[in-house]
Structures are given as structure tokens and as C-alpha cells.
Design brief:
alpha/beta; single chain; 42% helix; Rossmann fold; six-stranded parallel sheet; globular; 206 residues; 6 strands
Length: 206
């Protein structure tokens, strides 16, 4: 009997600037045939409209035509699938993660589905990745980040590096999207790892 399950990732989008990161992570998860359980906060929906021009939540547009892999769950529905600890998945990522969401999770507040799913992910000792995007950080943000790190969350600021010599905004977005997928244990072909980048340079030299 084959008990293997498809890889599942829970993904939350909140109202911090950084919609291109969320879009790219979803595209890459879909390319890897990962099932995506998506919840978008009210301000996250506004973010998608403001930064991507997406007036309606369109799973096909978020995954380059692989909307069949996406299950959208209403952020007001605290009884949705991802709110239950019995729902098995390989990790949750909130990208971008606002300071408001960060503070709520750190305080144990579950006022919406994203916050509830994050709390459940922590209590079940599953992987929770918080792709925070705020600058500068207040002292309250720093304390919340420390508290969540101690609770087991992986704090992943959306701070792309420049050592791979990015030439476009897309290169910067891919840098962080690749890092997030690495943390989730999802395969990708992006040139975002330093050792593989050096090897690729050697192979491509005349």
C-alpha cells in the first residue's frame, strides 16, 4: 500500500510591501508540483492589487496557469482546513509578513486564519517561515522576532544579497524566493546558491 502524500505548503500573504516575492514563491511551488493552501489577509488582497494590479484573487495568475494546485481558504474562516493541527503539511510561509501579523503571532493572537494557521504550525512543531519586510525595525519588532525565533519560527527577512551580481529586479526577487524554497525543502533550478553559482561560472568560462 502506497501511503505517500503530495507535498503540501501553507502560504499566507499579508499587507507588507513585497507582492512580487509572494508571486514568485507561488510560481516556483507550482513548478515543483507542490499543493498550495493559500490564505490572503484583507490588506494582503490590497497589496496584490496595488503592487501586481490583481483586482481579484486569481490562482492561475499567481502560479502561471497552475491554479489546480491552489486551494484558497478565506482568511476569516477560523474553521478552515489549515486551522487544524491534524492537517498535515511540510511547512508554512508568510510572504510578505507584516509587523502587525508578526506581533499577533508572537502574542498568541489568532484573529484571522493566517494567524491561527501559524499558531498551529508552531504548536505542531512544523516549519514556520516568516518573510518579514519592514525597515527600520522598532524595538517591539525586534522583541517579537526574538520571541518567535525562540518558539521555533524561522525568521527570513526579505533582504536580497548582491554577491551573485543581480542585474534586474527579478534577480533580486529570485534570490529570496530561492532561499525560501530551500528552507521549505522544495527543489528549484534558480542560480541562488553560492557554491553552485561558482561551479556554473567555471563551466561557462571560455
Amino acid at each position: 500500500m502506497n501511503n505517500s502524500r503530495p507535498q503540501r505548503i501553507v502560504l499566507g500573504i499579508t499587507g507588507a510591501s513585497g507582492a512580487p516575492y509572494a508571486l514568485r514563491v507561488m510560481e516556483l511551488l507550482a513548478e515543483a508540483e507542490v499543493e498550495i493552501y493559500l490564505s490572503v489577509s484583507k490588506l494582503g488582497r490590497r497589496l496584490l492589487a496595488d503592487e501586481l494590479g490583481m483586482k481579484q484573487l486569481d490562482p492561475d495568475a499567481l502560479t502561471s496557469g497552475r491554479g489546480d494546485l491552489v486551494t484558497i481558504q478565506n482568511d476569516n474562516d477560523l474553521g478552515a482546513t489549515i486551522a487544524s493541527g491534524s492537517f498535515l503539511h511540510q511547512g508554512m510561509v508568510i510572504v510578505p509578513c507584516s509587523s502587525n501579523t508578526l506581533g499577533a503571532i508572537a502574542a498568541g493572537i489568532t484573529g484571522n486564519l493566517i494567524q491561527r494557521a501559524a499558531a498551529v504550525t508552531l504548536k505542531e512543531r512544523r516549519k514556520l517561515i516568516l518573510a518579514h519586510r519592514e525597515s527600520p525595525l522598532s524595538h517591539i519588532d525586534i522583541l517579537n522576532l526574538a520571541k518567535l525565533s525562540e518558539a521555533g519560527a524561522i525568521i527570513t527577512p526579505l533582504s536580497p544579497g548582491f554577491y551573485l551580481m543581480p542585474r534586474t529586479i527579478e534577480d533580486l526577487v529570485d534570490f529570496m524566493a530561492g532561499k525560501i524554497l530551500d528552507l521549505l525543502g522544495v527543489e528549484h533550478d534558480l542560480d541562488t546558491r553560492w557554491d553552485e553559482h561558482l561551479q556554473s561560472q567555471k563551466l561557462n568560462r571560455p
